[in-house]
Amino acid sequence: MQDRIEKSVDLNAPIARVWRALTDHEEFGEWFRVRLDGPFVVGDISTGRITYPGYEHLVWRAEVKAMEPERLFSYTWHPGAVDETFDYSSEPATLVEFTLEATDSGTHLVIVESGFASLPESRYAEALRLNDSGWTAQIENIQSHVEY
Q1: Helices and strands, counts by H and E, the chain
Q2: DSSP state of 129
């Protein structure tokens, strides 16, 4: 059973620029397509509304786990939580980690989401499918956002 999704990209942007795009809640919202209620704070729950067309009815909810400047930003959330009538809070969350490394031409960004194997069997395959395609799109979004 697959437990993780991993995507990576080499960005033609300095690490400070990529870090800001990941951790400034307004910039994150622009490329990720979510209107967040406030800044990311380690240990706090980040909330907001999805702005991606067709998903505007969904709430964003993630617990910020780590913010190690220009190296690691991570949070937990409930993947594939697209049924607004269902309470996902009793289910295990997955961990999303953005890891940055400076390169000669900019920044190497790795996105890993792990913990899928602990999801209920009834949601596992769909959550994995949705988030795998979602992270492919988000790689393109952040690349367009940070590469001027």
Answers
A1: 3, 7
A2: H
